Every structure is written in C-alpha cells, then in structure tokens.
C-alpha cells in the first residue's frame, strides 16, 4: 500500500501539462454522451435523410426527451444523494388523474376547480409525497428502494381507484390541453418547459449550497454530517424535487393525452433511471449532471425514434436499448475503476 | 506558561453501559502547544477527544476554554468555541474538489434565499489557495477532486479544512496512521507549521516516533485513566521505552490519586 502511494506520487510528477490538459478534456463527463448522441443523429439522418430532421419528427423526439428528461432530472437529484425513486412513473399517473378529476369533475359536492388551482393542489400533494419519502429515508432510515416501491404500488392503485379504471377525458377545446399539445415555433411547449427546468436545476446543482450538499452527501454522508451539512433536510429536498417533477410530467401527460389515465407512465421510472445512467449518473451516488441526464434521455429518444424510422422490429428495439444501457454502465464503471 | 491553558478538562467520566471508558481524566492544553495523546486500543483517547469535540456527552466533569467554563453538547458548540476535529478517515467528500471540501458546510455565499445560497466559488477557491500556500501544502490546483489526491495530500486537505475558520484548538485523530513514509513527514511538517502559526494541537497517535517528533508534551491513557503526563524529552529510544511501559501498565504516575 505504501509503495502504491509512492508510485502514484512519482507518476504525478512526470505527467506534463499537455497530457494533463488532454486528460481533463477526456474527463469531461458529458463528452462521451455528446459524441454518442451526435453519432446516432448522423446515423439516422444518413438512413432517413427525408424524415429524420423534419420538424414533425423532431417534435416527436422533443416530446419524448421532455417527458423522460424531466423525470430523469428528478431522479438525478435523488440518485446523487445515493438514493433512488421508483415511484415517479406511478406518480405521473396519480397526479394526472387527480388534476383531471379536479378540473373536469370536482370532488364530491365541490364543482370543478379552475386550472391553476387544480395544478397548485396536485403540486402540494406531490410535495407531501416527496416529503414522506425523504422523511422515511433520512429520519427513519428506511431504504429508499422500499419506501418508493410502496408508493409505486399505492399511487398506481389510487389512480385506478379514483377513476374506477376509466380515463377522465377533457373536452377537446379545453384550454389546459395547450400545455401538452401546443407548440411555439414548432417547438413543443413541453420541451420548452424541460429547458427551463433544466436550467434551474443545473444552476441549483452547480452553483448553490444545496446542490453542493447534495453531491457531498452522495460522496461521503458522514463527512457531510460532521462538516455541518443538514444532511436530513437536504435529502428531503431531493425527494421532494423528484416528486414535484413527476407531478409536472403527470400534468403534462394528462394534457397531452387529453385525459387523466390510470395506466399512463407504466415503467417510466425505469426509463428515467436508464436515461440518468446513460447520461453518466452513478447509481452509487455523488456523480451526475443535468446536461448528462438530458443527453441520456436524448440518446434514448433518438434511438427509439430512429429505430422506428428504419423499420426495426419493435421487439429488437428493446434488446438494443438494453444493450446500450449495459454498455454505458459498464464503460462508466470501468473508467471509474481506472481513475482510482 | 503564565497564561491560563486554552483547554482544561477536569474529572471527565464517561461510561458505555458497564464499560467505564473514561475514569476521571484530566487534560490541559496550553496556548501554542502540541500535545500527544497516546495509549493502547480502547484506552479512551478517542472517547476523550469526542467529549471535547461534542460527539459524546460526558457523564461528569468540567471543560474550561480559556478558563471559562463551557458546555459542549454537540459538534456545533465545540466548533463555535474554535475547536476543530480532523477525523481519522479524513472526512472528505472524494467526489468534490479541494476547495469544495475546505468550505463544505460553510460555503461563502453571494446571496441566500431560504435554504438555498448562491455560492461564491471564486472567493472560496482563492481562499482555499491562500490557505494551502500559507500551510505550504503542495497541491497544484484547488479544483482537483479529492479522489485524485494522494493519501498525504488528503490528510493535508483535512487538516487545512480544520484550520480554515480560525480554529484555536485542532484535534487530530491518528493523522499519520494510513500514510506512506514520505507523506508522514509532510504531515508532521504541517503540524509544526500550524504550531508556528499559533494553533494549539492535540494529536492522537499510536505512532510514538511521530509523537516524539512534533509534540511538546505527552499524555498516556490506559484503561480510561491517565497514567502519565510529561514533557517529551530524552532520546527517541529512551522515550519510546518509557512511554511503552506506561502503555502496558508497568508504570503509573497517578495510581495513588485515582484508585479508590
């Protein structure tokens, strides 16, 4: 062990500045995913130059990226602290169903509520769910996998119970539908929402004390604790962020589909986690970025879209996505071990 | 030393269930002094220091800082009194850079909105840089992630971190335990540097040669009792044998006072 130390010290001295610079560029976490993304785009453009870059097709990709990018950003906040949130797919269904119920039918004797009020109410409900997750994980020491798995079941069940299994359909000219269906300059509104949320959360993670403490908890929770970081509070904020973003996606999807459906968002948590991991987020905590996560979602979006465009069997599509996920994680893990 | 000691612990007692970890231990630390705290495993060194740093509440005893009686009930109390602890496992977040670790939990902010503060990274990096320079710690770039540093550099960062906020008393738990020979030398230099800058230091160690190198005085604990409290003197071999005989119970300077 001592000799290892000496060897490392001596190699450090011999590395010249340009090799260091090169190493720094290669260490730029998002570089690999950026290249992968661009290569995929070029490939599908080469295969289908007539269709791939058409605004309508780009809008399809952007809506996919918006949906899974938003969920994956929430997942990112939790995963960096070393946790996981399995509830987000079910939460999109529950929040979508509740917001549709509030806007269309009202509850019991209370008539239908206004759009903003309904949205505010579901956001509050979602925050309480996130608070519950964070509290259970931070204060009661319940494994995040288990506590969010409970919500995964409960939220899905509640969504079905509230609607008795039937979707709650909006009338076709309901103004709320613009949120998920509208476009501005051929860019889906939901993608613009993603960009705004991405900027805010990226700023939070990179430039604020909260973000730094989130990373510190993932890196060494005991170090964070003895350094005076409010470890429990920060973890609770992370889970609330995840639930709120799941709620946002639930509202957007209800608007996009024109209905609150209890079956929406099935397995979305796994897609979101996959996007985060492809984007360089470490499931061990402490590593990951908003840019990476969105690139991860974009890679998945472009692949799914492109594989449809080149008429690949939909069975094979999942096989290929699975392979990409495994390659991404393996590569990342090996690289990390080498840098140690 | 004419001034009152900066730390004076009297009659400190602490039990964990049936185990008496500390039996009426007294400790003083003078201004600008390096005190070595040694003893076999489970002698009570770490327990005593955890009492001072607020991690444990003592069952009985007095703590005075600059002859003022204080009540330390948690790590924040002790930090507020200017006592900083450097943990054995460095207590660093390896995924963050040097500057982030130095300021972890005490980030410099431009503005604050509820729980969220906008960090002033530039100012933190500059201050971290000047701190490392002042302590003559060799790290090229404060933006290096801690996981890319050597063990000695990590320990140096952990110590720098403790000194960043006007710590008057620095407690180091086995600062040289996990290090290579070259790195140990640098950490000992760092301790001398801190002493020359006016810090008072308590160093827990089982490496007697390191204690001999930097300490002014040494306290030996055995089975939760103080058995020796004497200046570091003599040549290293004689010192080593004398201290070892205290550690294994062959000698005891305080036996009449503390046996009931």
How would you characterize this protein structure?
The complex is a heterodimer of chains A (340) and B (260). With 340 residues, chain A is an all-alpha fold. Chain A is built from 15 helices and 4 strands. Chain A has one domain (30-339): ABC transporter involved in vitamin B12 uptake, BtuC. In chain A, helix 10 crosses helix 12 (231-257). Residues 1-15 of chain A have low confidence and may be disordered. Chain B starts with 6 loop residues before the first strand and ends with a helix. In chain B, helix 5 runs parallel beside helix 6.
Question: What is this structure's SSE topology?
Answer:
The complex is a heterodimer of chains A (340) and B (260).
Chain A (H helix, E strand, L loop, with lengths): L1 H13 L2 H11 L2 H18 L7 H26 L7 H17 L10 H24 L5 H20 L4 E2 L8 H4 L1 E2 L2 E2 H19 L1 H11 L1 H6 L4 H27 L1 E2 L7 H11 L11 H20 L4 H26 L1
Antiparallel strand pairs in A: 1-4, 2-3
Helix pairs in contact in A: 3-14, 4-9, 4-10, 4-12, 4-13, 4-14, 5-6, 5-7, 5-12, 6-7, 6-12, 9-10, 10-12, 13-14
Chain B lengths: L6 E10 L2 E11 L4 E6 L5 H8 L7 E6 L2 E3 L4 H6 L2 E4 L11 H5 L6 E5 L2 E4 L1 H14 L16 H13 L5 E5 L7 H16 L3 E5 L3 H7 L2 E6 L2 E7 L4 H12 L7 H4 L2
Could you write a compact summary of the structure shown?
Chain A is an all-alpha fold and 340 residues long.
Number of helices, counting only DSSP H or I runs of 4 residues or more of chain B:
9
Q: What composes the largest sheet of chain B?
A: 6 strands, mixed
Across the major sheet of chain A, the strand order is: 1-4
The CATH architecture designation of chain A is Orthogonal Bundle
Share of residues in helices of chain B:
25-40%
In the predicted model, the low-confidence regions of chain B spanning at least 5 consecutive residues are none
Low-pLDDT residue spans of chain A: 1-15
Largest interface, C-beta closer than 8 angstroms, per-chain residues: A-B, 33 and 35 residues
Report the radius of gyration of chain B as a whole number of Å.
19 Å
Whole-Å distance between the termini of chain A? 14 Å
DSSP helix fraction of chain A: over 70%
Number of domains of chain A: 1
| Overall strand count of chain B | 12
Classify the beta-strand content of chain B into a percent band.
25-35%
Mean pLDDT of chain A: 87
